[in-house]
Design a protein that fits this description.
α1 packs antiparallel against α5 and α5 runs parallel beside α9. The protein is an alpha+beta fold. It folds into two domains: 243 residues, Bira Bifunctional Protein, Domain 2 (BirA Bifunctional Protein, domain 2); 109 residues, Anticodon-binding domain (Rossmann fold, 3-Layer(aba) Sandwich). The chain is built from 16 helices and 16 strands. The protein binds adenosine monophosphate. The site of adenosine monophosphate has 17 residues, from β6, β10, β11 and α11.
């Protein structure tokens, strides 16, 4: 036997038994985006490294140590996207979407960061990402937060809480940066190597440090809230008033600065106490300067990203049901003639009943072995075709989950028979529904 090739650390397989929680999450977020008029955009997984360096910031953990970057054959540096905002803004600019237009967009997909893997933190992880481009007021900030709150409600997820902060304008932040630089410079001997480097680059990033030795120093640092400019304060008050009116609870956390450089004004994070240290579920903020920074016209914008892997973990932790969808019927075939007929018969049933989930036994074997597989599939009934049935132009229908009678059903009546037994829409209703859906 050949040696097994192990998967990469922090890159997970989602096995079929687990996929149903992902499906439920994906279904709910798509329903919510449709209900608020957000439209899907799909962007590449690979972009030029310069895009993320310029958007996320040179002195961030992501750019300094987490990106999966490599040179292509022509020597251009490329990076697997660590987040979606930069790519969506790039796409809006390069496709000319921002000429006198506003867009409310979403995307779903994998992101890549070379972090140290642990429960809830992976190297390939998945985000639902929302971006509203061209909206400057606090109303859209509130709408984005309401949308995330609705997602938790529809998923039946409790144990989440919302933290809010305002980072002010870049000018106010520049003032604060100098205040911080002064503060940390006075304690330079206590800083670690990372933080000392950031002291010269961007001292705000020192606040993101996860080094426990620095926790006390960071806790005592001056607050950004005290340097906030009046317009940002008004914006923040406007957001809070809207959240209060809509009945969304939050706490203001003046220490919430977020690990990316492009944010301005509103930042927020949904956290949970049910997942241990990886407690952030959905994080976002306003980035009014980013479009211009990436070469577009000045355009206010805001977005959030929800960590799907963590939300799936939380759904499982909290016992949120995610229905499995086993086949409703299982086709058992005995003998060569029946085997030849089986796949065609299942096709006819799927044509007549688009809602039907019907699995055909493949590979043959004894009746007993096939019934064992039928039973394991979770199907409610078996549709049995043997030589005797074929000779009489009927299929036998055998209940698998209760003790009802086996009955014979003529081929021509099979769709109606299955619709009756399985409680699905009748043949005519099913055809009409399909006509509506796929005209
Ligand atoms: P960020 O893009 O860093 O603001 O992260 C947005 C959300 O993505 C976080 O709230 C997490 O839920 C999720 N997330 C970020 N990094 C990871 C990771 N390495 N593994 C799993 N989820 C992550």
């Amino acid at each position: 036997m050949s040696e097994i090739i192990e998967p990469l650390r922090g890159m997970n397989d989602v096995l079929p038994d687990e996929a149903r929680w992902w499906h439920r999450l994906e279904r709910v977020v798509r329903e919510v985006f449709a209900a608020y008029g957000y439209r899907e955009i799909r962007v590449p997984l690979l972009e030029r490294t310069a895009l993320f360096k310029r958007a996320i910031g040179e002195y961030t953990d992501i750019v300094e140590k987490e990106m999966f970057s490599f040179d292509d054959r022509d020597g251009a540096s490329l990076t697997l996207r660590p987040e979606a905002t930069a790519s969506i803004v790039r796409a809006a600019i390069t496709n000319g979407l921002l000429h006198n237009q506003r867009h409310r967009l979403f995307t779903l997909g994998p992101m890549f960061r070379g972090e140290r893997p642990q429960k809830g933190r992976y190297r390939q992880f998945h985000q639902v990402d929302v971006e509203a481009l061209g909206y400057g007021g606090p109303d859209v900030d509130a709408e984005l937060i309401l949308m995330s709150a609705r997602i938790w409600r529809l998923l039946g997820i409790g144990r989440v809480s919302l933290e809010l902060n305002s980072l002010g304008t870049p000018e106010a932040r520049a003032g604060y940066r100098e205040v911080l630089r002064g503060y940390f410079a006075a304690h330079e001997s206590t800083l670690d190597a990372d933080s000392r480097r950031r002291l010269g680059g961007n001292p705000l990033r020192i606040l993101d440090s996860k080094n426990p030795d620095l926790a006390g120093l960071i806790a005592a640092a001056p607050l950004l809230t005290d340097s906030l400019d009046p317009a940002s304060r008004e914006h923040f008050d406007g957001l809070r008033a809207r959240l209060d009116a809509a009945g969304v609870a939050y706490t203001v956390n003046p220490r919430l600065v977020r690990g990316l450089d492009y944010y301005s004004r509103t930042v927020f994070e949904w956290v949970t106490d049910a997942l241990g240290s990886q407690n952030a579920l959905c994080s976002g903020g306003r980035y009014d300067g980013l479009v211009e920074q990436l070469g577009g016209e000045p355009t206010p914008a805001i977005g959030w990203a929800l960590g799907m892997d963590r939300v799936v973990l939380l759904m499982q932790e909290l016992g949120t049901p995610a229905p499995a969808e086993p086949p409703q019927a299982y086709v058992v075939l005995a003998g060569a003639a029946a085997a030849a007929r089986g796949l065609g018969l299942a096709e006819q049933l799927r044509d007549a009943l688009p809602w039907l989930r019907i699995e055909t036994d493949l590979g043959g074997g004894s009746f007993k072995a096939q019934f064992r597989r039928a039973d394991r599939s979770g199907a409610l009934i078996a549709v049995v075709l043997g030589e005797d049935e074929l000779a009489r132009d009927v299929a036998a229908i055998k209940p698998l989950r209760h003790d009802g009678e086996q009955l014979d059903c003529p081929f021509a009546d099979l769709p109606a028979c299955l619709a009756r037994l399985l409680g699905g829409p009748s043949v005519d209703a099913a055809a009409a529904a399909r006509q509506d859906r796929d005209p």
